[in-house]
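Lab notebook, design round three. We kept the backbone fixed and only want residue identities now. Task for the bench partner: fill in a sequence for the structure below.
Input structure tokens:
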């Protein structure tokens, strides 16, 4: 009697896998979150609570740009292409129970759906606000993973191999970057593109810095130390456009505190330190946002920092920073 039971279990497993494979691929613009909510609530307090969370400023940019682009549709319109959107917040207001749940691949492959259900508008707002940080974290990781999948497809194998052979790290570096400087402890890669948007045309520069340092102690993990380490390196190795100019971290401007912010994150199951802030050029009018990721390599004897910076005057910086973040989080070591 055991054989039929095993056969049935295998059939069920195959059927489940087949169902997922038959789902369409998720769609939607980058950085976009679709909120499914009745129009009356969207124009009222529940909608205002969603706007406040999802459209708060993205930290570390020189001008205000929201975390996400937010779109909305009514529940009865959540069909066809909209149903396959890659990032969805599903608001159910008026049911019997309160539920907050994050689900994957519900209507499409590569979809993240945040389900928020509550009996009344006030109960819904309270539940949403209690879990907003969790929802934002999940949505940001999901967006980063989507970009990361694209970077794998666009990976410059030759350049990635150069970096791996000299520094012992793997990164999914897309096409278009070229080497500015490369040795066993330092790499500077850059991509310069002429971009057009909203009637504007300008050179956009994206840069990657990779540097290794001896790992002394846990006192490494603080912003002033890492900022000082970065400045000591870029002062001598990353010159600016003018004679004698060089890259620096912006610490303040006209009384404003611009010191970078940082937090501990997980990278492939290991500890890492993620920092975002603004850079400038000492001796030149040039600057923009940067992001960095620092971790200890498998030997335990050195720290590796991978940074991305963007120079995109007249353009929104969020798309470039999001891609650089995804590139940073592709970091892995040759030994791994």
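Proposed sequence:
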């Amino acid at each position: 009697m055991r054989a039929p039971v095993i056969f049935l279990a295998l059939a069920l497993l195959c059927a489940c896998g087949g169902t997922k494979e038959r789902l369409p691929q998720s769609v939607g613009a980058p950085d976009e979150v679709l909120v499914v909510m009745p129009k009356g609530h969207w124009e009222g307090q529940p909608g205002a609570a969603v706007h406040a969370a999802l459209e708060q400023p993205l930290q570390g940019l020189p001008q205000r740009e929201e975390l996400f682009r937010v779109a909305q549709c009514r529940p009865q319109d959540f069909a066809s292409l909209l149903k396959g959107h890659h990032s969805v917040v599903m608001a159910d207001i008026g049911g019997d129970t309160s539920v907050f749940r994050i689900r994957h691949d519900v209507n499409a492959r590569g979809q993240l759906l945040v389900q928020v259900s509550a009996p009344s508008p006030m109960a819904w707002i309270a539940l949403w606000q209690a879990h907003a940080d969790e929802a934002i974290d999940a949505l940001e990781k999901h967006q980063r993973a989507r970009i990361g999948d694209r970077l794998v497809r666009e990976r410059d194998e030759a350049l990635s191999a150069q970096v791996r052979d000299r520094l012992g790290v793997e990164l999914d570096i897309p096409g278009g970057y070229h080497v500015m400087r490369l040795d066993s402890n330092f790499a500077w890669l850059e991509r310069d593109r002429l971009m057009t948007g909203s009637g504007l045309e300008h050179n956009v520069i994206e840069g990657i810095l990779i540097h290794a340092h001896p790992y002394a102690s846990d006192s490494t993990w603080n912003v002033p130390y890492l900022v000082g380490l970065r400045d000591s390196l870029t002062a001598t190795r990353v010159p600016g456009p003018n004679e004698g100019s060089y890259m620096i971290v912006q610490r303040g401007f006209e009384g404003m505190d611009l010191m970078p912010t940082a937090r501990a994150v997980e990278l492939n199951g290991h500890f890492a330190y993620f920092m975002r802030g603004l850079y400038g050029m000492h001796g030149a009018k040039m600057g923009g946002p940067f992001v960095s990721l620092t971790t200890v390599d498998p030997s335990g004897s050195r720290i590796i920092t991978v940074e991305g910076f963007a120079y995109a005057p007249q353009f929104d910086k969020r798309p470039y920073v999001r891609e650089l973040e995804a590139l940073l989080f592709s970091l892995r070591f040759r030994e791994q």
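Keep this in mind before ordering anything: The first helix runs from residue 2 to 22.
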